[in-house]
Amino acid sequence: MSDPRSVLRRRAALLPPVLLLCALPFYLDAFWLRIGLFSMAAAVGAVGLGLLSGTAGQLSLGHAFFLAVGAYGYVWLAGEPGPGLPPAVAAVLAVLLAGTAGGLFSPVAGRVKGIYLGVATLALVFLGHHVLLTADSVTGGFNGRSVPPLEVGGFAFADSGPELTVLGVPFGAEERLWYLGLALFALTWFTARGLLRGRPGRALAALSDSETAASVMGVHVARYRSAAFVVSSMYAGLAGVLLALSFRRVVPDYFSLALSVDYLAMIVIGGLGSVAGASAGAVFVTALPLLMTRYADQLPLVATPGSGAGAIGPTEASRYLYGAAIVVILLRAPDGLHGLARRAGARLRRRRRATGPPGTGAAPIPAAGTDPTDPTDPAARAKEHTP
């Protein structure tokens, strides 16, 4: 049972970053808000993949397929041609549609593991890309489709509709979508942590360690594998909806194998099996190419977009960088950024305990004869030889 005071301290520690994130739209311009939106959408999808690959130990290369199902599902359900459903209803149904697609594939995920599951999910990406290009009436073909803005209770998360000004700051599409992204990311964060700390998370962790030991303890291997795949698909569908709203137009080429590889890079860099690590890795992998594109003219060896053949563009340079980051992580810190942060925090706490409370200097050293755990203490040696 956890200490109520430690729980209260952890919750209080979340308050400053939450307030900071809520205040950023009042100070940042549209470029930085878009980076934040893309990072939050990527974090939602990375958390889902982390549950599947990091916790359950199932390799998946088909995450881009389920992102596409969520994005295009929302566009078709809420747009014309299509049923023209209310956008909020269409968003929920798009997430459920992605979960249904994961459920249809879950019998395979329940019986196949490792590289074999990776190859099987790889087929989903190629199949999905082909469907996106050929099903013109639903997807718009190669040129894609515009994304209908999300409306909840008459409030539009877009530039359309009545103007909104908060504390003298005009709130356009980026500012409104920022708070939607925060809400969806918070929902993802708390539901994923609840799963990991509950019985499903313990079962998936046991399954990842040893299938034989997990089955002996009563874990239904195929059922939990399938459930992890469905949950991961639903998180990917939610990320796809948020990505579609952020981009405002979806095209098939975005949901390619490269996107699935990017998501694998996110969870490896951030730390497998960690919600916070997956979120940090998503921010790193998503923001890096956007920042390098903006500041390409100020970076050495990086050419501005459209500079011609033979030049290293910002996208290629960013892939080289986080590819190198993956190698360094695997060699030096297999638990990723989350593990590095955890160890740094532990060292800081040990240093604080060693120096004692502020203003008291170093911690007092016990006098001889007062520390029974010290092997050099005479009292301790006498105690060892006492019959």
TrEMBL record:
Its main location: membrane. Residues 355-379 have a biased composition (Low complexity). It is found in: Cell membrane. The keyword Transmembrane applies. Residues 344-387 are annotated as: Disordered. The chain crosses the membrane at residues 34-52, 59-77, 89-108, 115-133, 177-196, 227-251, 263-291. Keywords: Cell membrane, Membrane, Transmembrane, Transmembrane helix. Residues 344-354 have a biased composition (Basic residues). This is Branched-chain amino acid ABC transporter permease. It comes from Streptomyces olivaceus. The lineage of its organism: Bacteria, Bacillati, Actinomycetota, Actinomycetes, Kitasatosporales.
